[in-house]
TrEMBL record:
Residues 69-209 form the CAP-associated domain. It comes from the Bacteria. It comes from Ornithinibacillus caprae. This is Cysteine-rich secretory protein family protein. PANTHER family: SCP DOMAIN-CONTAINING PROTEIN (PTHR31157), SCP-LIKE EXTRACELLULAR PROTEIN (PTHR31157:SF26). Residues 244-346 form the SCP domain.
Length: 355
């Protein structure tokens, strides 16, 4: 078969050569050399059209934050210094948290010294060509938002299936086979609220969308009670920090942390998880008012946000931001204090106006 193809090519070259000789003063050798040169140029053009995946990502994403995936923590320490905290996550990576508590919040997910995921929000982020507050339309022009997004790992294949609401609030963009961006949008303003960058393996661990797959899935989290307590404490602080950075973005005053209110919130999250319900009212009919009275907490006004089964703290806050009643509490100017309680994947925020 290969010999036949070669004979066909030679015949074509010969015919073209005879044509060129008839139209010019070239010798047969000159005509064939000219044809060979044209073939070589076309082959080179085809070679240059194949652009490596990393180069494609670099061309789209110029901001420094995108370049941290795959880098080691020594470089992170050299550039950003020691993190504010190191929080255990529910996904076998450790969050390194960097924040100034008002205008910038970043957390880097680290596995064995390597950065595999990043979540960030605030005004002072290097995420060119984007900025927090950019319109949905402008970002959709740069990133491709599809209802089906694929990821291949060895012989295994995975397809994440996004609903219309997912594409509106938290679409997924595939940059390379192992680099994904999940922008979160404030659907009340249609503007970028925060951004998450992650490898395919992290995306599989989170499973934030419906999934069709052929192959294996990472195992579900399996931690001791002591490990879960550490994870929950980290998520509580993350929710508090992210809430204040988002409030600052919307020109709202910073909230103060309250340990006693945190305990009230934690006990409610724990009660919902252990008794398999989801409500502002416990199975005994008592609400936030009664729970605060039981701890003898004095206040002028109070509000509560609850959430369940979000993959982590940042996702829970973004969920509240996109729900009218929860958003009102999250961005209210009347509150002065906040307590956050997390138990497993149940989340509670208690807001108070205190004297």
């Amino acid at each position: 078969m290969r010999i036949i193809r070669s004979l066909i090519v030679l015949s074509i070259i010969a015919l073209i050569a005879f044509y060129i000789i008839g139209k010019t003063n070239m010798t047969p050798k000159e005509a064939i050399d000219q044809i060979t040169l044209v073939f070589d140029e076309k082959k080179n053009e085809l070679r240059t059209k194949k652009v490596p995946e990393k180069m494609i990502a670099d061309q789209k994403l110029e901001g420094d934050l995108f370049r941290w995936i795959g880098k080691d923590t020594d470089e992170l320490l050299d550039t950003l210094g020691e993190p504010v905290r190191k929080d255990k996550s529910a996904y076998d990576y450790e969050w390194w948290v960097y924040t100034n508590e008002t205008t910038k919040y970043m957390q880097f997910g680290v596995v064995e010294g390597e950065i595999q995921t990043i979540y960030a929000t605030g005004l002072e982020l290097d995420i060119d060509p984007f900025t927090i507050g950019d319109s949905y339309e402008s970002i959709a022009e740069e990133l491709s938002f599809e209802s089906d997004v694929s990821y291949n790992k060895g012989l295994s294949s995975y397809t994440f299936q996004l609903k219309e609401e997912d594409i509106k609030r938290r679409p997924l963009a595939k940059i390379t086979n192992d680099l994904f961006i999940q922008p979160y949008f404030d659907t009340f303003t249609d503007k970028l609220s925060s951004i998450r960058i992650m490898t395919g393996e992290v995306l599989l661990k989170h499973r934030p969308y419906a999934l069709q797959y052929r192959g294996d899935l990472p195992p579900e989290p399996n931690y001791s009670d002591e490990e879960w307590e550490e994870i929950e404490n980290g998520m509580e602080q993350q929710i508090f920090d992210i809430s204040n950075v988002i409030r600052n973005f919307y020109d709202k005053p910073t909230l103060n942390w309250d340990d006693t209110v945190r305990e009230v919130a934690y006990l409610h999250s724990k009660d919902m998880a252990e008794n398999n319900y989801f409500s502002h009212y416990g199975l005994n009919g008592e609400g936030l008012k009664e729970r605060l009275e039981e701890k003898e907490i004095y206040y002028f006004a109070a509000g509560e946000n609850i959430a369940a089964q979000y993959v982590d703290a940042p996702a829970a806050v973004e969920g509240w931001l996109n729900s009218e009643g929860h958003r009102e509490a999250l961005l209210s100017t009347k509150y002065t204090h906040l307590g956050v309680g997390v138990f497993r994947f149940y989340y509670t925020q208690n807001f108070l106006t205190k004297p």
